[in-house]
Amino acid sequence: MTETALNRYIALFEALERARPKPDSSARPFAASALVRAPAGEGGFNVRALTTRTREIFRILKEESGGWRAPSGTLRWIYAAMMAAQSIDPQRYFAIRNALKDAAKPSGTGSLYAGGTRAALVLSLSSENIDTLIARFFAIKEAIKPPWYRRDMSVTDMFAAAHAAEGATPGEVVARRDQAEAVFAADRVLKGHKREGARLCALMGTSPHQVVAGFADLREAVRAQRKLRHDHDKSMLVAWSCEGLTAADIPALAEIREALPRQCNGAGGARTRLAQQILVADRPAPPAGSLSALTAVIAAQAAMMAAVIAGSTVATTSAASS
């Protein structure tokens, strides 16, 4: 088990619970998850400094965005935690978000998801000139934009921003995706997830052949864990495999899941998704040490939170209508 990351997570979760103001019960588990990856300072991992900085950034976001503009609600705390963990300057984030809004219509690529907030968060990881980043983002977005009938701007914007932040060209991104998609399309089990797998492999730098080869063992390992058996879906397994998880990692993931605070629950496999994030927190994402590793981590966290929040919304709606 990843004891160090798990201990950091529990300490962060408890510190956020004591904070004033504090994240609500929906935001707290994911804010702590974002902070787990923060680099240790000279004096070690400083829980108090991270939670204090998260609260400061939350206040700045709230003052700038008001009560209704994105990010709002639960996501505002999670954005604040991500920015605190990666030492993102809120003013740079606002500048990038505003630049995205100004350039959206002239780009002809359609509307921005949530006013460009998610794209701005990921782009803020890069220290490049803002004009250069924005131009690259829209060029990549145009290159990877799917047909209207299967378009999801939240996904397109997130991945376009991640590739723009790492410095990739539109041609490189498309070539990586096409190569990976062909591998997934040829596999009987994973062909239904060919686009999802291709997106992740292109960003993570993972071999699609490796994902296909190890998927069956990963799935059987998850099914063998009683507590995981009904708390996952195929998309989660595809994402884990693309992030480098193997069957050998699953017992540790199950242990972490059981050790999480009791309050870390929710629809959409929230507890299991959190356990996976903690499991890989101390691992260098491929390719190790590069900006693409960091953007991949942010993209994975954003996707995890979107899935859980979507699951919670569905569960709430179903309960209300029953």
Task: Name a few traits of the molecule.
66% helix, disordered C terminus, 0% strand, mainly alpha, 322 residues, globular, 15 helices, single chain
| CA(first)-CA(last) distance | 40 Å
- The number of E-state strands comes to 0
Strand content: under 5%
Silhouette: globular
> Share of helix among residues?
55-70%
Largest sheet features: none
> Can you count the helices?
15
List the helices and strands and how they pair.
Elements: H1 3-18, H2 28-36, H3 47-65, H4 74-85, H5 90-107, H6 117-123, H7 130-144, H8 153-166, H9 170-185, H10 194-204, H11 208-223, H12 234-242, H13 250-259, H14 270-279, H15 291-321
Helix pairs in contact: 1-2, 1-3, 2-4, 3-4, 5-6, 5-7, 6-8, 7-8, 7-9, 8-15, 9-10, 10-12, 11-12, 13-14, 14-15
Characterization of this structure:
- By secondary structure, this protein is mainly alpha-helical.
- 66% of the residues lie in helices and 0% in strands.
- It has 15 helices and no strands.
- α1 (3-18) crosses α2 (28-36).
- The chain starts with a helix and ends with a helix.
Please provide a brief summary of the model.
With 322 residues, the protein is an all-alpha fold. It contains 15 helices and no strands.
